[in-house]
Amino acid sequence: MLREELIAKVRAYHPRVKSELLGAAYDFAKLHHGSQTRDSGDAYYSHPVEVASLLADVRLDEVTIVAGLLHDVVEDTGIDIGDIEVRFGADVAELVDGVTKLDALEYSSKESAQAENFQKFILATTSDLRVLLVKLADRLHNMRTLKHRKKAESRDRTARETMDIYAPLARRVGLYSLAAEMEDLAFEELNPEARRAILYRQEELERENADDLGRIESDLQQLMDISGIQAKIKGRRKQPYSLWRKLERKSISFRDVADLFAFRIVVKDVDDCYRVLGEVHTLWACIPDRFRDYISVPKPNGYASLHTTVRASGNRRVELQIRTEAMDKTAEFGVAAHWGYKNKSYGFDAESARAAGLDPAANLEAFAELIQDGADASEFLEHAKLEMYREHVFAFSPKGKLIILPAGAMPLDFAYAVHSAVGDTAIGARINGEVKSLRRPLKNGDVVDILRGKVAAPVVGWEAMTITGRARSAIRRLVRERDQMQFRRLGEGLINMALRRAGIDPIDVKMTHTAQLAGFQTREEMAEAVGRGRISSADIMEAAFPGYRVERFDDENKLRLDNEHARLLVSGEDLMPGVTLHLGQCCCPLPGDRIMGVQEPDKGLVVHVASCPKLAEYDDHPELWVDLKWTELAKTGAVAVGRIRVNASNEKGVLAKLCAAVAQANGNITRIATQERHADFTELVMEIEVEDLKRLSQILAALRSLAVVDRAVRDQEVEDDE
């Protein structure tokens, strides 16, 4: 893009733009990047120019666009931030400095480093939202040119960062179109076969349904004309990655995705939105449980719209999104939709954004609050990803305060959303006036009253009754504090035992000095390390008494998830020593599953997935239930067998296609059995070695994307019609 083209692009929405400032920044970037080139062979300065153009696409102010033009000069040339401030002002320098520091945090391949840098990333972007917007534009252009990067490992790492961090952050501040493009580009790099399969199925179904879709659009336009409602009707094609995620989450075939075919109806005002809804529901039958009113209660990122799914012409399930032009703008540009003129100055209108239900600073600060609970970096990254990806449910306190939570949230999530002190002391919940289980997922409109005790203390299994990062990190904080005391007591006991075996009375030993000899600052740190198994009591003895030797035993074998090793892989505070553990064959638990134990006659404790249908037999016998969780060893050092059921076309080569899909998703098939076989379809049960639930979900998604597969589910699952 030429210098004058960029200036004209900004002037089109910002007539009073400082053209000389933009032009000077363009020339400065071009001059100082000089002969530098990118992997594509293009002149390097073309990259900051494209970043600036992307920022102009969402109509940002000239300071942000200038920062986009200059965002790489400090890092890649001899220019320092002082030069930027002198030439372009303090505001530009501050943004460039912020983006430069984020560039220094580019994630390494090591997960711990990635997690620590993400903490710093969040804290940096909360200081000025524009830093994040420049960085998102920078990442989008880098993704558009990713194919030119020579090293596959580098492409893979960048694509995963984009999928895990940047796209969800863009969605968090309402930049849906930017997020969708980043996800699709990352998906193309990470799983090209799956993306091609989904695009093929989309095109195939669109061809098959072209006549019906054209008739539906015509019917909608005719309905608007008869009703006297001015409306723009646009077809909407779902992104491949969005479809892939639905196939991962739900036990449905490709054809049964509810919003595979969708139309957007844009009208003048809110009254017209509800008029259109009434007219549509009069014309076509709506599908129960598929209606969402995000106008009455917008999403936290400001998104507002009416969503409904109907059975339209040809008995086709079609999703309709009904919104005003202002809502449509916010849906596309998110926080950037609220840049404009106010008091003769062009910039971000925070009041307008808050009035639309969008508070981007608060959205990002919610992540920063997770850090305050003292979670380590990997926990923070895990919880932040959960926060960014989920849809929402809307519940109320007894005084009418609205609490917005991720879909599937439970009462403890609600309690911690109100205040950490409320969550720490929660002992029960009253929902809509009735005492309910803390395992009950909240529904839209629920009034939740949290019952509280006097003491803050972790309760066994409560983390499994939460889904929000805030609740889980707070519960883990309580657990850490309790565990720290228990490990210290255990470590002290082990050290004392080792001393007595050596004929030494612990009273005669200066433990602080012993700790220093072993490399610790305090005796408490030493005891905790021994209690946690990070160092053995034998190591302490050797450090304190040189020449003392203890026989050691090492077991480096990875474990198979079976009854023999269940005790090493499953834990629970109410799990009594000596109780025999058996893994439920009805549901085949995998690391990553929420698990429960049930005492069964003559069997001991049987471990089930929390969603296992067999658990319904024990609803009236709570005394037989035990809360369980996976040990760290199960999460990192075990191999398990997952069982799935597949309905596929009975045609030549179908088994080879299924096996190839499983192999490409890194699964190892150990057994295949044909359950039913008919002229047109066959039903198979496959047992597959996987490391955890996430891997099995990826395998199911890969199978569901195949044209020959009608249905692929985990064998213990019940079919989800949504």
Descriptive report:
The chain is α+β, with helices and mostly antiparallel strands. Helices cover 47% and strands 17% of the residues. It is globular and about 85 Å long. The chain folds into five domains: 3-194, Hypothetical protein af1432 (Orthogonal Bundle); 209-336, Beta Polymerase, domain 2 (2-Layer Sandwich); 477-544; 559-635, no CATH class; 637-714, 2-Layer Sandwich (Alpha-Beta Plaits). It has 29 helices and 24 strands.
Keywords:
722 residues, alpha+beta, Hypothetical protein af1432, Beta Polymerase, domain 2, 6-stranded mixed beta sheet, 47% helix, disordered C terminus
Summed over residues and divided by their number, the pLDDT gives a mean of: 82
CATH superfamily of the largest domain: Hypothetical protein af1432
User: Which shape, going by the Cα principal axes?
Assistant: globular
Radius of gyration: 29 Å
List the helices and strands and how they pair.
Blueprint: H1 3-11, H2 19-33, H3 46-57, H4 62-70, H5 73-76, H6 81-88, H7 90-103, H8 111-125, H9 129-144, H10 152-172, H11 176-190, H12 192-208, H13 210-227, E1 231-237, H14 240-249, E2 261-267, H15 270-283, E3 285-286, E4 292-293, E5 306-311, E6 317-324, H16 325-333, E7 339-342, E8 345-348, H17 350-355, H18 360-372, H19 377-389, E9 392-396, E10 402-406, H20 411-418, H21 420-424, E11 426-431, E12 434-436, E13 448-452, H22 469-501, H23 511-517, H24 523-532, H25 537-544, E14 559-560, H26 566-569, E15 570-571, E16 581-583, E17 595-600, E18 604-609, E19 625-627, E20 629-630, H27 632-636, E21 638-649, H28 654-664, E22 668-677, E23 681-690, H29 693-704, E24 709-714
Parallel strand pairs: 2-6, 14-21, 16-18
Antiparallel strand pairs: 1-2, 3-5, 4-5, 5-6, 7-8, 9-10, 11-12, 11-13, 15-20, 17-18, 17-19, 21-23, 21-24, 22-23
Helix pairs in contact: 1-2, 2-4, 3-4, 3-9, 4-7, 4-9, 6-7, 7-9, 8-18, 8-19, 9-10, 9-11, 10-11, 11-12, 12-14, 14-29, 18-22, 19-22, 20-22, 22-24, 22-25
